[in-house]
Amino acid sequence: MLFFNYGVSSKIYKALFGLFGLFLLSAPPVTAAGDPPPLKAGIVSGAEECGSCHKDVLAKWKDSMHAQAVTDPIFQAAYMQAFLDSDGRAKQICLECHAPVTTINGDTGLKEGVTREGITCHFCHSITAAHPNGKKRFDVKVGATVAGPRGNDKTPYHASVKSEMHRGAELCAACHEYEANGIKIMATWSEWKNSPQATKGTVCQQCHMPLENTTNQKGERISVFSHSLAGGHSIVQLRKGVVVNISNVERFSDRTVVDLEIENSGAGHSLPTGIPTRKLVLYVQVMGADNRSQKKSVVYEKIIFDKKGRELTRDSDIMQGLGAVIVKDNRIASGEKRKEQVIFYGATPSEVSVTAWIDYVYQPALLQNTEMRVEMTRTERSFGR
Ligand code: HEC
Ligand code: HEC
Ligand code: HEC
Ligand code: HEC
Ligand code: HEC
Asked: Which ligand is closest in space to the CA of residue 132?
């Protein structure tokens, strides 16, 4: 999986987190020496302990945004901003999803290694019920029994119980659905519930945790569910989402009219989904034989205003729930084929080539300007008179 370097300097977040003496990068890793100690009731074990047997799963998970839900510099910067703006109240809001171990150990100062592991193994495999947007987002029973897809694995380290929830979207809904003041800030789960993918019975796991072949401790070939949970941080996953086609180009003496169709063919939710600062941008370019070109764009996004009518652009404001109204949401729903018409004015040369492509853009409003941009799809056609 490919990650982007956001270019946020470590100086910035050292400065931010240094303020609170919280931090992060200097902490020693959780290590396992020999056989891991048995699981104890009420204590969340670290990922490295699980990984002493589940090596491949551990390696994939480490690559995932779940493992970086606390240490991710973009989150850290936004969290600190929210923390400052809210006199610390952000602790109660943000950590339930980004550092859910705090709901068990109360470590909201993020001092313990296991808390900083974000969405860690033992936590996720101890969830017994999910309550999207509930007062408490999940019920968790941490102990020597892990919840898994099969439930028939007896090991010296842990027993296991079959959990249908771990095979379905409800598990993900606990954190991938977020409403405040009646504003749907993130609605990945409800977008999915209303999608043709849900009707077909395709759950999040089928697209985000596909089975992969690997070998187990005895060297036998087995397949396990991928824990890298590729999403917007994965170029491969991004390119599965959307296609753009130029359906028609009509040329008049004073203008060129381009009809396009954008299809959300590969995602089980809107594109983009999740945190509202992510956008999709369609670019259309018309180039004449003389190499003169014109370019236009259409942005697909969700825009939220606060109660004073100002657009919220910072993740820290949006995720704190300062929004009062959604003023725009033209994102492309799962399975939708969106038609667009783009008109270029001016005399057209005898031959033109039309190119259309879609970029995925995430521009967190941080201390320094950073942008993540990936081209998702491109198409090109030439037209003569
Ligand atoms: C001493 C080795 C060992 C350790 C440590 C260990 N496991 Fe396992 N676990 C196994 C074995 C063996 C299986 C059986 C399947 C397999 O071979 O992968 C298993 C199966 C599982 C399953 C599938 C359960 C099912 O029946 O659906 C889950 C989930 C799981 N482990 C989670 C964890 C978590 C979370 C941790 C850390 C808290 C952990 N394991 C630590 C050995 C271990
Ligand atoms: C305990 C909360 C929690 C649960 C449960 C959870 N997630 Fe997440 N997930 C998060 C958080 C928080 C992030 C973002 C981390 C970051 O970027 O700082 C995330 C990130 C992701 C991403 C990566 C997005 C990107 O931008 O690349 C994907 C994909 C994802 N989750 C899918 C799932 C799926 C599928 C499930 C259910 C099997 C699930 N998650 C369950 C909290 C959770
Ligand atoms: C976001 C929650 C989440 C986290 C975090 C997580 N898992 Fe899982 N895990 C799942 C789900 C969901 C499945 C079942 C997927 C399915 O059935 O489609 C699963 C399956 C498994 C299995 C059974 C795999 C198989 O194919 O037999 C093991 C073993 C396991 N996880 C271990 C781990 C370990 C070890 C970690 C940490 C390194 C971890 N998990 C982190 C959600 C999670
Ligand atoms: C039919 C396959 C499919 C299903 C079902 C599906 N997704 Fe996705 N998901 C994708 C693709 C493809 C992308 C990449 C496109 C993108 O990021 O905009 C993606 C992206 C994401 C992202 C990253 C968002 C971003 O813009 O960075 C998250 C988070 C996510 N999915 C969570 C979920 C959750 C939670 C569910 C279940 C409620 C789910 N997905 C169901 C295919 C799927
Ligand atoms: C309901 C659970 C939930 C709450 C509450 C929550 N987040 Fe998140 N956050 C997520 C999920 C899930 C994602 C990943 C979604 C996606 O990729 O679309 C995410 C992503 C982010 C990202 C983008 C990270 C990146 O690198 O792409 C930032 C920044 C962020 N959250 C900040 C915050 C702050 C600050 C708070 C508290 C004010 C907060 N979040 C509260 C679940 C939550």
From this structure: 5
